[in-house]
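Is this the right way to post structure tokens for a design question? Let me know if I should format differently. Anyway, here goes:
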């Protein structure tokens, strides 16, 4: 957390968006990856800048089992309240350089939006338990409106 004051650089949206970044770490091992991540994404100024553009949370995950060589993969989950702010933040030159230091070129960046009619759930962690695990299921949907319509038995809501 940062104690620096910041001013919103965007108008927040009434919904939240999830950014997932998954890729192979560029540093030679997990400890070096941790240091690189904290250098690239953990400075008070960087955190304040991200928050000013609508970043609400930042969680980082590594595989449960260590890889045989290298640092392995990293999964970042960020909630944002502005896709416009997210795009402005990640188009910043310093942010781009930080990402290049952290990941090899095979990273996958996806912005997810909530869809009415689509099932979702969030299980809170039990009190006193610090381990967190993430399961991510991903597949194509031709149309959000058509999918929501199938789930509700109708034609879906028109945007």
């Amino acid at each position: 957390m940062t104690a620096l004051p910041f001013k919103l650089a965007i108008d927040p949206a009434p919904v939240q968006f999830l950014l997932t970044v998954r890729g192979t770490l560029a540093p030679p091992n997990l400890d070096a990856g941790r240091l690189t991540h904290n250098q690239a994404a953990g400075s008070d100024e960087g955190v304040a800048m991200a928050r000013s553009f609508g970043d609400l949370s930042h969680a980082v995950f590594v595989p449960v089992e260590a890889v045989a060589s290298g640092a392995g993969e990293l999964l970042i989950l960020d909630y944002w309240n502005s896709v416009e702010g997210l795009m402005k933040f990640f188009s910043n030159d310093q942010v781009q350089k930080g990402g290049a230091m952290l990941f090899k070129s095979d990273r996958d960046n996806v912005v997810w939006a909530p869809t009415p009619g689509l099932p979702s759930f969030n299980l809170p962690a039990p009190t006193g338990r610090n381990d967190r695990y993430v399961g991510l299921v991903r597949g194509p949907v031709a149309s959000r409106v058509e999918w929501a319509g199938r789930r509700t038995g109708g034609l879906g809501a028109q945007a």
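Format looks fine. Someone answered above. Worth noting: The chain is about 30% helix and 20% strand. The longest helix spans residues 30-41.
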